[in-house]
Amino acid sequence: MTLSPSVLSVPMAPGVLPRCAEARCVVRSNLPVNGEYRLLTLDAPPEVLDCQPGQFFQLLCPEPEGEHPFLRRPMSIYGYDAEAGQLQFLYKVAGAGTRGLATLRPGGMLNVLGPLGQGFSMPQHWQDLLLVARGVGLATLAPLARAAQRSGRRLTAICSARRPELAMSVDLFRGYGAEVIVVHDEDGSSTPEALRGLIEARIAAGRVDAFYTCGSSRLLRLLQDLGQRHGIPGEIAMEQQMACGLGMCQACVRPFREEGGIVQRRVCREGPVFPLLEAIA
Amino acid sequence: MSAADLSVRLGAMTLANPIMPASGTFSEDLADVFDLDLLGAHVLKTIMRGTRAGNPVPRVCDLQGGMLNAIGIPSKGIEDFRSRMLPYWQGYRAPLVVSISAHTLDEFARLCAEVSLPGVAAIEANISCPNIEADGNAFAMRPDTTAEVMRRLRAETDLPLWAKLTPNTGEPVAVAQAAEANGADALVTANTALGMAIDVRTRRPRLGNGMGGMSGPAVKPIALRMTYQCARACTIPVIGCGGIATLDDVLEFLIAGASAVQVGTATFQSPTVMARLVAELGDWMQAQGLASLSEIIGSVEMPEGEAA
Ligand SMILES: Cc1cc2nc3c(=O)[nH]c(=O)nc-3n(C[C@H](O)[C@H](O)[C@H](O)COP(=O)(O)OP(=O)(O)OC[C@H]3O[C@@H](n4cnc5c(N)ncnc54)[C@H](O)[C@@H]3O)c2cc1C
Ligand SMILES: Cc1cc2nc3c(=O)[nH]c(=O)nc-3n(C[C@H](O)[C@H](O)[C@H](O)COP(=O)(O)O)c2cc1C
Ligand code: FES
């Protein structure tokens, strides 16, 4: 029997469209990308493929032998293609949930919930975009790079990694027309000081309208400082431990700076993408 | 959709069906996933009078067959409830149940009076949250404190008043009877069980608050036991809550004596689960040829010698 992707359909209130859906997807492939990362490609029903770059899914991970991940695990959308009916995740095997994902074989099923959260915005006047990301954070920025290319923006991607060979997605970003700069820990090119020089030179040349980044506190602090000094806006995709992923349980809050003081926001609902200057490292 | 009559009575209230969300695991955000008017009632996250930040992260961690949470009732306060939440929920047909809590009797009583507003169908007194006092202490740990708080709340409202109990007490029957004797119109059994988990590598608790409340399938036998004990010992209706995820779970609680059930953690695994349970319960009633759920509520057949 061949399985086909489908949504668990439930009645909606009249006139209301589901914002997200729970769907059964079929695994097309689940391949190691390098030692640490795997690329999971799913056949997904159209109901879950109206995605925005920066949004995420909650994956109901299978149980690896001897372990029992209970809650869903959040994963950024790495790729989505409504025409091909495909959804992709790039993940790092970290614990029980992601070890469970690694057991998926072609033809197997995965229950996903999504798309969730607020994605990146790309106002018209942000023409020269600078992406700075490290590790699996690059997964989050991949669909943004594709959207930037489609709307004719100029794109520079600084990919940071421990070793040059671990700088994933270099070809992918190049494929989206980005100028790619790989920095790494082994030669010291990835330190905040080194990056500061690199980025300031580009700002001086008038080539940065906005920053996009994710995850790393060090990168956040650097970009906030540069953003403040040079009046450059930006956005960051953030993470937090989650339970529901929908905004119901308040598990995933983080503090943010607002006009009136510090406020708590839900990463799953108000985020995961937030204005760079409001984020707190 | 099945045509079966799923209505249940909870004292003076009638619910279209016995499936409702558990406090703290439900919000308007679920309307993005299914029509919330399919539910028997809407139970909101516990509110407190003032604004509260809630506990440090991580606020949740997962376990085999369940999870721990120490959210800590972040609250936007009574004003946000009146001006924003109440008008939103009044847009639905399903009855609105407002969960309230407080540290002191005076604050609890005042909040109870303040939320007794048109559009509110019942008040659920959360006298059992393990996450707001040290070591999980709460009014519902003891019969005397339960009696005192329920008496104060009863004096403040004419609305149906539900008492949400805790599985952490050693005297569940005495607590349930104290709630009934002091004006509770229904009991909710139960809140989370106080638990803990430690990361062996770091030797730190896996929750930012140290301890937290356990929920999910692993606690179901405890909540079911308590539902049975309370239904047997009290005359007011009991609402079962704890680990419910499947149709059989719902039926188990009804057979044990619950008149309705609340579904919490299961919604995190499958946000559509409550809509499915309503449909499956209807199909089951038809297949069984039952005219009313009252035919199965409390129908447990206990072994000889065991008081039923
Ligand atoms: C919005 C969002 C998008 C994400 N996108 C990706 C992605 O594209 N690729 C990817 O590999 N990972 C991503 N993550 C992180 C991923 O969710 C966690 O690595 C995963 O949940 C770990 O689960 P586990 O069971 O394998 O490991 P666990 O044993 O649960 O945890 C292993 C380690 O990961 C940490 N962790 C667990 N859950 C989270 C979480 N929700 N957020 C941050 N850290 C966590 C734990 O504290 C622990 O240090 C994302 C997280 C969020 C919130
Ligand atoms: C994340 C989370 C938050 C909760 N918040 C509340 C709350 O604010 N008030 C309350 O009375 N119970 C709260 N509970 C307890 C649930 O309402 C319910 O009693 C408990 O989780 C057991 O049911 P379950 O196993 O179906 O989740 C919370 C539970 C969870 C998991
Ligand atoms: S994970 Fe539940 S509110 Fe964000």
UniProtKB/TrEMBL annotation, chain A:
Binds 1 FAD per subunit. Gene3D superfamilies: Dihydroorotate dehydrogenase, electron transfer subunit, Nucleotide-binding domain of ferredoxin-NADP reductase (FNR) module, Translation factors. GO terms for biological process: pyrimidine nucleotide biosynthetic process. It holds the Pfam family DHODB_Fe-S_bind. InterPro entries: Cyt_c3_hydrogenase_gsu, Dihydroorotate_DH_ele_sf, Dihydroorotate_DH_Fe-S-bd, FAD-bd_FR_type, FNR_nucleotide-bd, PyrK_electron_transfer, Riboflavin_synthase-like_b-brl. SUPFAM superfamilies: Ferredoxin reductase-like, C-terminal NADP-linked domain (SSF52343), Riboflavin synthase domain-like (SSF63380). [2Fe-2S] cluster binds at residues 244, 249, 252, 268. Keywords: 2Fe-2S, Electron transport, FAD, Flavoprotein, Iron, Iron-sulfur, Metal-binding, Transport. FAD binds at residues 73-76, 97-98. Residues 18-122 form the FAD-binding FR-type domain. Belongs to the PyrK family. This is Dihydroorotate dehydrogenase electron transfer subunit. It comes from Salipiger marinus.
From TrEMBL, chain B:
GO terms for molecular function: dihydroorotate dehydrogenase activity. Transmembrane segments: none annotated. Its EC number is 1.3.-.-. GO terms for cellular component: cytoplasm. Binds 1 FMN per subunit. It comes from the Bacteria. FMN binds at residues 23, 45-46, 126, 164, 216, 242-243, 264-265. Keywords: Cytoplasm, Flavoprotein, FMN, Oxidoreductase, Pyrimidine biosynthesis. It is found in: Cytoplasm. One of its GO terms (biological process) is 'de novo' pyrimidine nucleobase biosynthetic process. Residues 6-285 form the Dihydroorotate dehydrogenase catalytic domain. Its cofactor is FMN. Pathway: Pyrimidine metabolism; UMP biosynthesis via de novo pathway. Substrate binds at residues 45, 69-73, 126, 191-192. The active site is at 129 (nucleophile). It catalyses: (S)-dihydroorotate + A = orotate + AH2. The keyword Transferase does not apply. Belongs to the dihydroorotate dehydrogenase family. Type 1 subfamily. HAMAP family: DHO_dh_type1. PANTHER family: DIHYDROOROTATE DEHYDROGENASE (FUMARATE), DIHYDROOROTATE DEHYDROGENASE (QUINONE), MITOCHONDRIAL-RELATED. Catalyzes the conversion of dihydroorotate to orotate. This is Dihydroorotate dehydrogenase. The lineage of its organism: Bacteria, Pseudomonadati, Pseudomonadota, Alphaproteobacteria, Rhodobacterales. The gene is pyrD.
